[in-house]
Batch of 3 targets.
Target 1
Amino acid sequence: MSRFMKAGSIAVLVSVVAALSIAAAVSAQGARLGAPATPAAHGGRFGPFSPEALEAAAKVLGMTSDELSTQLWGGKTLAGLADEAGVDLQVVRDAVEAAQLDAVKAAIAQAVADGSITQSQADWLL
């Protein structure tokens, strides 16, 4: 693999990690302000409402990911749903963050398996 291609792969992965961090911060701020946290507002493969994150939040709230998605699309907030379920919002956030981190780790592992990046590059990213 050329040096240019390796550098490009690293830049893409760093961008994904940075976007994930920004999306999590925006989501957390929106939840504090009571803004609806809808998939349309915070989409993306690794965003707060990635399939993995949605599933983790739904599990903590005692519902399916489809039910949670419907509630969020209907304008409810994650904070409001947590309150209705009697679950501390921080527990939901922790579950979502853990799911996001697992998804990013899996994507990095896949990039190593595909030969897009080396293991040392993956270690640096992690």
Note: The chain has a mean pLDDT of 76.
Target 2
Amino acid sequence: MRIAAAGDVVSPDAVLDRLRHRYPGLVQTTTWGERTLLYNPGAASSHGVYFVTVKERDSASDAASALDARGAYRVSFAVAPERYRALFGHLPPRVNASDADVDPLAVDRLMPHPLYAWMSWASVVNPSPGTLEELWPLLDESYALVQSAHDQRRAG
């Protein structure tokens, strides 16, 4: 059962295409069953820096969003810890879920990542076109973070 009409949800392929078009230096790979965009311009390093993941199915360690049962997908990305606190409050401790008051089944709403909130990751299940537009400033910040992390790794 789909959780939203197809016209109300930006497809995972469209999200990935828009990200690759907007941000240079991205490499797509599949990691842990997710399509992942890594920042690694010119394949300058053996591994890039995680920028965005698109998860389209549940896994043994990450089924909180019930993606399989709902025919959904989740877009996830890191934000600076300060931005995370401004958006969601405190960073949760390292556990396999974010704060109990966050509903991992929520759709088309920016929320802490159900597993990686402690690392200041945010996510959206089935973003609509309007929500995707609202995410661009956060994604711009995230892109700057990964560029900086990549530069630091390359420097030593």
Note: The chain has a mean pLDDT of 90.
Target 3
Amino acid sequence: MRNSEFGMRKADCGIGRMARAFALIACLSSQVARADTPVVPRSDLSRAAQVIEAVIIGTHAYQIRLARVAGRGSEACWAAPELSDEALEALVAHQAGLFASNRLALKDWIAGRDHMRFDPARDVFPLLSAPVPLDQRLPVNVFTERAAAASNKPLSTVRSVASLYQLILEVERDGDELQDAFAFLTGLGLPVYAGQLGLPGDDASLASFGATLAPLTCAAPFATDANAWRDAGRKVWNWGEKHLGVRNASIVAAELSTTPTVRAVVNRLRAAGPARVAVIGHSFTMGNHWASPGSFTTIAAEMLAEANVPLETRHYSAGGLTATRAVRTFEREVVEWRPRVTLLVVAVRNDEDLAALASLIGSLRAAGSAVVMFDSVGDSAERDDAMRSRRNEAARTAGAVIVPAAGRLAAAPDHAKFLSLDGIHMTEPYHRLMALVWLEALDQALH
């Protein structure tokens, strides 16, 4: 093997004639090692900052595709002429791969300990080296500039939170993809909401900050007006607290469990003995919704679990769940599980839903389940009083127990605080009250 095959010259290794024989093997080894070591893009950044920027680039790559579909691909914020659609899709895949990577190995790499052999060349470096321009008017950069000035926190700390704003404004992916991002960042110990930057989180402050950011943000294939920024702030804040355990269903349940009224009904439920309880419902029953630390049904389930009440609760939930879709999606599974009590919180919008509701109640009752519904849960879909009356009558005729809740909701002292910023979903005060209403209804159904 000739030295020229490795591009070597004597001067490359500083080798004198007398030392050459002894240093040749070591020099060759170093040359091979350097050839196998990937070039680190953005070596000016810490490893944690490299990961954060990789996440941001993956999100923006997806949104460039959205902009192209929406006819905005030539605008400054969304132009990426060097990247084909296929290249953008590959970057999105790298982000997904990064989210799915071994969290412990990645933390080890970030800390400068490579014992677990995390390979940044697989997903981090391809994202960092991609020619994806990040215009200063993009949400991630607008938020970074203003939040950094207001918080005096390190740039990487602010960028971690900013990455979630860039994603959450694009509301079509604020489900699984957003939750993956939250879980990824929290798993690495990185900040995920503005409270960790020392910024205020009340609605008025979020609205004021949103009004400041909106005119600085470029037009996008999703809303970036003041209300969109405000809502994004609330979502990031609430979900951040949930993922970090600052405020979630368990904490609300623990607070409620100290009240005499709740303790009394929980004790009665404990005396009822073991039973299965099913909840079939729309987003008002989904514990991972942004508007509250938990839904009234997940908060109630936490209270029962903490008190060692022998009731097993299973949730069968989906956003916007109608009676028709509930039959198609959940009926068979729930009937086969044979719960002793089933709560239905489903939307009924037309005659098809009315027929599906009656059919579902009939199937559940035939399987030995008592079926409970509320006369109203305050859902915006219930604003049609005539349809709501027809729904309640159809449910009652089919054998469901209709529990009065509308009056208690209307009479609540903090009723004005029930509706969330989006005008659809409900905040924590609503879910706290409804958790008690549900436990009382469950107590009646089991005795």
Note: The CA atoms of residues 411 and 433 lie 11 Å apart.
